[in-house]
Amino acid sequence: MFKKILIANRGEIACRVIKTAQKLGIATVAVYSDADREALHVKMADEAVHIGPAPSNQSYIVIQKIIDAVRQTGADAVHPGYGFLSENSNFAEALKAEGVAFIGPPPVAIEAMGDKITSKKIAASAGVSTVPGHMGLIEDASEAVKIANQIGYPVMIKASAGGGGKGMRIAWTDAEAREGFQSSKNEAKSSFGDDRIFIEKFVTQPRHIEIQLLGDQHGNLLYLGERECSIQRRNQKVIEEAPSPFLDAATRKAMGEQAVALGKAVGYFSAGTVEFIVDGNRNFYFLEMNTRLQVEHPVTELITGIDLVEEMIRVAAGEKLRFGQDDIKLNGWAIESRLYAEDPYRNFLPSIGRLTRYRPPVEGKRDDGTVVRNDTGVFEGGEISMYYDPMIAKLCSWAPDRATAIDVMGRALDDFEVEGIGHNLPFLSAVMDHPRFRSGVITTAFIAEEYPDGFAGVAPAEADAKKLAAVAALINQSVQRRSAQISGSLANHQRPVGADWVVTLGGFTLPLHVKDGADGTVVAFDDGTSLAVSSDWLPGHLHANFAVDGAGIGVKTSRSGTGWRLRWRGMDVVAHVRSPRVAELAKLMPVKLPPDTSKMLLCPMPGVVTSILVKDGDAVEAGQSLATVEAMKMENVLRAERKGTVKRVAATAGESLAVDELIMEFE
């Protein structure tokens, strides 16, 4: 077994590998850039080596700098994690030349499967079902349009070396094919240094289902069930689960056997994933093979009980797998939610800054047997950098069945506290309660179809509004009683705490009466209904558990002006608790209107302006591209919302802008 492993990565996956290495008694080495000097993976490792400036193309993906770190520390193996150099065959070959083990597959398999054009040809020859498409290289946008017409719209334009949703566009028209080709080419060159593009048929009503492979260097190759990854946004996975609610045993077996056949065709060993697109009739088509550990590997670990990182290390050390295909059993259900530094209220655009509060839910097995796991690479007070992927954490839940696993995830998301940056916790919570997601009838178009205008939060239904009103009433009662107990007041002059209040929140006005009952505080509403509510909440608490009508809920609470901001299950409301007379007067107060920015194009997120496509005085049409902004390795095209004329362009290409800085204004 190895004595020292260097992890050629950063963030949560570096921390994840370090944990398993520590379990096996193996020393670890972290590498870090300028931006990651204080990162969690650096603190967790036994040693750490600085490898350069913040941009990954000057640090994490410079092979020689990793090799130098290996030499400096005497590491005898390297785990690449995912992304960066994990699927770079030259890196694997360089380590081999150094006499250092690469904890991953053989270079020949990485090279064959890393090129999506080559991999599809190998898959077809191995008897794996493939999607119709043009596997040759495409020279320019005109040729892309021609090929797209031959295949038939819709088509998927993809970077040959792509991954993580980068360099991918769906085109339904010639115009979209032309623009998508150029954007994919630009993103591919920026992210991978390889701008080759190919086109394939886009399968409608598709589900994204992948098979986990695990093999050793002695010819044993197994499949460990599947993962459903259909909840995606811009081709980037957001929520994954294992197993899939859609597959039957026969389809699972067929997909698994084809994945193994593909792996054997390239002499595969270590962990790897074969991704398929599955249509509504359970026809499946090979998409790509990821010759590395997947981001979503924890859900497979939770239902199989197999530590994939441990097995990767053992395989790289030459050990045989300790189990066979018949030993693989799928137990229960697991769900993973990717917590991203993306603002769902701004169309999921990247958000950077300091984590002023970071309190994940408690990990481990619960009293009811369910499990919560959180893989993360950040800490309270740490920075989310603009240079890397926006993932903050991967929150996972396990339960004996899917419905319970969803419920456990929903509660864990409620209990996850993140402040200081924009993040997608409200959106993830909303998905957990979405009837379509809970039914399992989902496709990769789920987010686009269910949130066509973006995410604006969850509007509370009346039942939920009453629960939150009861929470607000309890908080108010606690604060009022605390204020009434000020010491030093004259005898018989204590301020009485009223029992009748009016709560306004989320468009509801709810008169109510608060009284003490056997089950704690009872909140009685005007319509005759009542809710018993109790909590350990105290002033200053930003999160608390409330028992409402016998059910526990976790609510984030904070002051907002004269009201209370309450966040729960994707709802974000300000509750005002007023006496009946003050509530009457409040109705007469004028509403302050927000500033008019309708004639301005503002930078939607911190980033670099890569191009300005119009100039002063230009007439623009609705939907016309105006500028592009790059942030967190993604190129974002900003378009005109309506027809108009450019009055002034305020920004220039190459300029770094903060969120809401002016790019241009219109007449």
UniProtKB/TrEMBL annotation:
Keyword Metal-binding: yes
Domain Lipoyl-binding intervals: 588-667
Matches recorded under InterPro entries: ATP-grasp, BC-like_N, Biotin_BS, Biotin_carboxylase_complex, Biotin_carboxylation_dom, Biotin_COase_C, Biotin_lipoyl, CPAse_ATP-bd
Broad EC category: ligase
Signal sequence range: none
Keyword presence, rRNA processing: no
Catalytic activity of the protein: propanoyl-CoA + hydrogencarbonate + ATP = (S)-methylmalonyl-CoA + ADP + phosphate + H(+)
Keywords: ATP-binding, Biotin, Ligase, Lipid degradation, Lipid metabolism, Magnesium, Manganese, Metal-binding, Nucleotide-binding
Needed cofactors: biotin
GO terms assigned for molecular function: ATP binding; metal ion binding; propionyl-CoA carboxylase activity
Pathway given in the UniProt record: Metabolic intermediate metabolism; propanoyl-CoA degradation; succinyl-CoA from propanoyl-CoA: step 1/3
Enzyme Commission number: 6.4.1.3
Domain named Biotin carboxylation: residues: 1-452
Matching Pfam families: Biotin_carb_C (PF02785), Biotin_carb_N (PF00289), Biotin_lipoyl (PF00364), CPSase_L_D2 (PF02786), PCC_BT (PF18140)
Membrane-traversing stretches: none
Domain of life, per lineage: Bacteria
Gene Ontology BP annotations: lipid catabolic process
Ranges of residues in domain ATP-grasp: 120-317
PANTHER family: CARBOXYLASE:PYRUVATE/ACETYL-COA/PROPIONYL-COA CARBOXYLASE (PTHR18866), METHYLCROTONOYL-COA CARBOXYLASE SUBUNIT ALPHA, MITOCHONDRIAL-RELATED (PTHR18866:SF33)
Protein name, per record: propionyl-CoA carboxylase
